[in-house]
Description:
- The chain is an all-alpha fold.
- The protein is 78% helix and 0% strand.
Amino acid sequence: MTGYVARRVGVSLIQLVLxxxxxxSLIHFxxxxxxxxxxxxxxxPSEIRQISDSLGLNQPLAKQFGLFLGHLVTGHFGTSxxxxxxxxxxxxxxxxxxxALIAYGLIVALVxxxxxxxxxxxxxxxxxxxxxxxxxxxxxxxxTFWSGLILAVVFALKLHWLPVSGYGSGFFGVVQSLxxxxxxxxxxxxxxxxxxxxxxxxxxxxxxxxxxxxxxxLSTRRILTRHVMxxxxxxxxxxxxxxxxxxxxxxxxxxxxxxxxxxxxxxxxAVEQRDYPLVETIAVLAGAVVVFLxxxxxLMQVVLDPRVRPGVRSE
Length: 315
């Protein structure tokens, strides 16, 4: 058990280093000079060279990557070229709207997905099951920006129930402004939850101890809540952890559509301005969240399910 945990942590650290390398490398392949973009078209070559020297952009890439890794380890991410502000403070300011949107979208997906998955599993291969699968497939295939625009047109522009864009103040203002993008984000994840949980529930329902519970006269509700769900939910949690990266990517587009001042909007501005340290830091932190959640899910699965522990044979 201890060896397994050590191996998984080691693999996660290697993933973080590789992620940092690719984030650092890819942004440097983007055409354009960040200093020229920052100074404008009237900047002279000597001015560009002088500013580049002061920012360390003329140093060898290997040295720049070493400094970048050092910033990541110490937690001091440097200063943004575009905003002339500490990257740590920028991320702290913009992280709350993005995290709130992801959490809200996940809640929407679970509130809609769990009942649909249960209904689909209990009515397998019947019209209700087919209808739910068609609906979730359509919601999954529809891009988040498109579903977000449709929701905005219907509920904001036509019905005037919710704001069309912006980020409100106060708890209820924030909830109102995030409702439409959260629904769009939740719908994109709905198929993953419904398909995974439906399959797990059907598998658990076919096991012998469920048949024994039925034979004892236990109600369907009690069997579902006390026996089926707690054994069927783990694969869904694992799949959700894997899809956190998809949620983070979805927020980048939705924040642009609904003008939410989160990390997605900040990342878009940083890429547009070729703000190397800001883009690299946001990309690595987002990837680190995915790596950490996958690690936590693996370790939680080992703790909760003895059958998947290393060295344990399933009969």
